[in-house]
Amino acid sequence: MSAVQLPDVSVELDESGHLSVDFLLPTGILVPLMVDFYASLDLIKKSLWREVPKYPLNTKLKREDSYCFMFVNKVGEKEEILDESQNLNDVRPFWPVLKLVEKKGDKTSKTLDRSVNNLIGKGPHKLDSYQPAEIEHFRKKMTELYQDINTARRGQTAMEKFEWRHPLRLRSSPDIPKQLKSRLNNDHIVINVEIQQQMCHKLRLSAQCTPMEAVRLLLEECPGYAEPDDCILKVFGLDEFLYGCYPLIQFKYVYLCLVKNTAPQFWLVHTSTLPDMAPPVPPVPPNRRGTLPVFSYEQPEDSYHCSWKVQHKFSISVTGINKVQLADNSKIKMFAGLYHGNEALCEVQETDELPVQEGSCNMKVELTFPIIVADVPRSARLCFAVCAAATTKKKTSRDFNRVAWVNMQVYDFKGRLPRGNQVLPMWQYEALLLDEPCYPIGTVALNPLGHDATTLSLSFPDYNVRSSIVYPPYHLVKECAANNMEPERTPGSPSMRVSKLHLDQLQSALGQEELFEQDKDLLWLLRFEVRDRFPHHLSQLLQTVKWNNHIDVAKMIVLLESWPGLEVDYALELLDFEFPEYHVRKFAVKCLDSVLGNDELSQYLLQLVQALKYETYLNCPLAKFLLTRALKNQHLGHKLFWLLRSEMHSPAVMVQYSLILECYLRANKDHMGELHKQKEALSKLTFVNQLVKMDRYRFDDQKCQKLANSDMQSVLGQKTYCAKLSDLTSPLSPLFKLKELRVDKCKVMKSKKRPLWLVWSNMDSAADDISLLYKNGDDLRQDMLTLQMLQLMDNIWQAEGLDLRMNPYMCIATGDQQGLIEVVTDSETIANIQMWYKKKTFDKRALLEWLKDKHGTGPELDQAVQEFMLSCAGYCVATYVLGIGDRHNDNIMMKSSGQLFHIDFGHILGNFKSKFGVKRERVPFVLTTHFVHVIKKGESNNDNFERFRETCEQAYLILRSRSHLLMSLFMMMLSSGIPQLTCRRDVDYLKETLKPDLTEEGAREHFRGKFKEALRNSWTTSVNFWFHNFAKDK
What sequence ranges are listed for the domain PI3K-ABD (predicted)? Predict the structure, then answer.
């Protein structure tokens, strides 16, 4: 008997590809609706939800994301549609009826949801800026990722699980710089190990000895105590352990002790006393039966229509602009551009001036772009701007006041062109310096707080194609590149014979800062030579690609397959906004994954979190890379959590960042408890800070200051506060465990925002206390960036064997306008030292006399002068290169060891303070007579000053050799919202200081000129110091 042929709902389609569908609501109400057969189900659900208020019992319904569709398939079974990115053509229901059913969930998962949302700082109403289908797709993919990691974790040994929570901090190499080798005694170091209370052993061993060998040697002196395999070395005062087959000198802690010329101190810990640090592995949830397979490019090609076959010009219809915050009869104009990165793919389109009535502008305007659909690249974005007309008679785009903007992906996360009607909540323009009305660097997320925002209504055509129009899969991209490759041995082909003249021209073009059209054409023709001879110039080659030509795009994508891996300096820049192409970003992530260890990755995490803002889709290689590394290293996870959590107040990223945080926390429930305790502690500190900011605590009155301290200590001493502020990990670093708050040592600082000086006892009872500064009301992001750069500079110098005794203390933003700063103990401001000396501010002897008071006049003083000389050189070069301004004697400090360091970085990249139009900074960097007096140890050591000058030059040239990296890192921060870093012009300041266009000798002469200028005009800095001291005396 032949099979019965069931009817297909597609036969019911009208000429426009629409189908009448009945929707059965949970209330029993039936809603008939004409829907696009090829529109995604999440868009259909939105259309349905706009109709729901017209029907009875609508108030009984929950939010739309609480429901999913159910249908009857062709074999008579009920199926829930979990993937709403599908359309009715993919699902093919037996009958055009869809039932809305509540999504399933148990109490445990709902409790976890609440805990995660509470910790992230996200309410359930904040997920409206992306398609629900894209959000669910991201969750599904990331859940698969962490389940794979947790499955692998089940087979790990106890030690392997321990390593996840206590990862090693290692240098990239065990090599020791020449100037530090003299501190070794015949390549040996001395370590102090405490076995039990008051039983300390001093051990002399090879710097190349491993931790296990050190434990074995120690236990030979203590027979019968334990077996070597049952013990581990713990760093005294830190939650850090040494293990593995690495030389002791390769551990960062041991190396830092060598730098400080102190003996490393350890506890010998029995492993049986360590708690089980392995995170519990969550069970794999049972698979719920979904619908047909999720749409993928592996489906038969006749199920979709390739966008490269569409020769129509790309077009959209604007059907309305509503909730415009302008008076009636105001005139507005809309601009629309197609962009790839910051490059417009064709001319920006604009409407005529249109009148506003009652906040709305009703219209139907079709905008046709001078580019065919086939040539629109996968990572293109549509950028819209609504502007209010100016009053000038001759109007250009610059004569309009920007009102609102919004960006959207041209292709959705499944690679499909939009179709049908869409309403986009727009963003308000902030104080941005823009040359064009559109804002392509802005997010593609819609405004999640858009209930009162200006909205833009659009309609997208189907280009006379019924099925989904989809960007071609990779095998078709390869096929296109192969079919259009230049003929053998002709320009542009891999077999082209390249003459010496061509090579010379190529090198000349690559050496230019800006590429002209003829240079771009040359680079493109010689792209295979660039790959083989100059692979680190990939970013310049990408600038030559005609992104509005799908054949060139296909050739570039395929060329990346054979591109050699790049070093971190050149891979990072490919994650900048200028390079949105998926395969380019995937290649960059692959390079970073291969060259960066976890410690090095942590060094660049600030920029990589910002680079997430440049991603076109939620599910991207960068998000997967960061999550994978964080899930395998809790120190990275800790830092990633706070970097993401601190920006959750920003509507532009709250959805994207919350989804990444959600995935991390669900995979690490034990870490979630630890982080939750940190969040609660910070909430308590916020309350205390608000208390001491009350009007009755005037900080210019000494009695009020004492009262503020007394009241603060009374609150901190309460049981609830003591409980919340004890036994927790410091948000600054998981290496620091805070035991008990020493309330009597806590105080309120006198500065405007009333920061709290907080002191905790250490988990190791005999270790030093841990002091932190809590700030609420100050934007710490600029300080974070500056301190990160100082740390990076120190790492660059250390890698070249130059130790400049830098002190880039820790700083982290934990939320909007709040965060924590490490307190550098045993240090004083230059101003306080000058006041201690009780002589005139201009007396250059103050600093040296203070060091003599601490160290006498013997070898200890010589060591302190050396510390001062090296650190002064480091900060002179660093503050010059970064353009750090507003330097005075209250934000330059010195430790009793002689180390100089700078604090408070409110002005960077040459954004110096000015008064009456005159810049206060008149020197490239601070090098006063006070500093020179210390370096020369009075007037007796001119040779030391010459060494100082040479050290400065050496440090400058080393930084200059990494100028590409430094500029790339600043470029990646343009989306951070830091006020003094908003556009490329700000980053160009580094070109003025690093002079990458000069030869090394030319750069050396340039810096020598700045050095002489700093010395010549040092009197101006001394005057500035005097004014600060005078103000303090008042």
Answer: 15-104
